[in-house]
Amino acid sequence: MPRIIVDVMPKPEILDPQGKAITGVLEKLGHTGLSVRQGKRFEIEVDQITDARLDEVRKAASEVLANEVIENFTVRVEEAQ
């Protein structure tokens, strides 16, 4: 079944305390030079991929999945595996 992926990330200017905490733990474990930002991933299975379906998912992402005041989102199609 085809899958549409919606990735949601905090906007660059928004503080990301979870990402900072993960970055700190990684540094303590010796993984230096990394900067983590934590987001969300939504996997949406659909019967078929069409332009109308992609538009519908973009609208749903804008209305429900992401808070566009503080988050950006991208919509992409994941190839069948």
Automatic annotation (TrEMBL):
Coiled coil: none annotated. It is found in: Cytoplasm. One of its GO terms (biological process) is 'de novo' IMP biosynthetic process. Keywords: ATP-binding, Cytoplasm, Ligase, Nucleotide-binding, Purine biosynthesis. InterPro entries: PurS, PurS-like_sf. It catalyses: N(2)-formyl-N(1)-(5-phospho-beta-D-ribosyl)glycinamide + L-glutamine + ATP + H2O = 2-formamido-N(1)-(5-O-phospho-beta-D-ribosyl)acetamidine + L-glutamate + ADP + phosphate + H(+). GO terms for molecular function: ATP binding; phosphoribosylformylglycinamidine synthase activity. It comes from the Bacteria. Pathway: Purine metabolism; IMP biosynthesis via de novo pathway; 5-amino-1-(5-phospho-D-ribosyl)imidazole from N(2)-formyl-N(1)-(5-phospho-D-ribosyl)glycinamide: step 1/2. Its EC number is 6.3.5.3. Part of the phosphoribosylformylglycinamidine synthase complex involved in the purines biosynthetic pathway. Catalyzes the ATP-dependent conversion of formylglycinamide ribonucleotide (FGAR) and glutamine to yield formylglycinamidine ribonucleotide (FGAM) and glutamate. The FGAM synthase complex is composed of three subunits. PurQ produces an ammonia molecule by converting glutamine to glutamate. PurL transfers the ammonia molecule to FGAR to form FGAM in an ATP-dependent manner. Belongs to the PurS family. Part of the FGAM synthase complex composed of 1 PurL, 1 PurQ and 2 PurS subunits. This is Phosphoribosylformylglycinamidine synthase subunit PurS. The gene is purS.
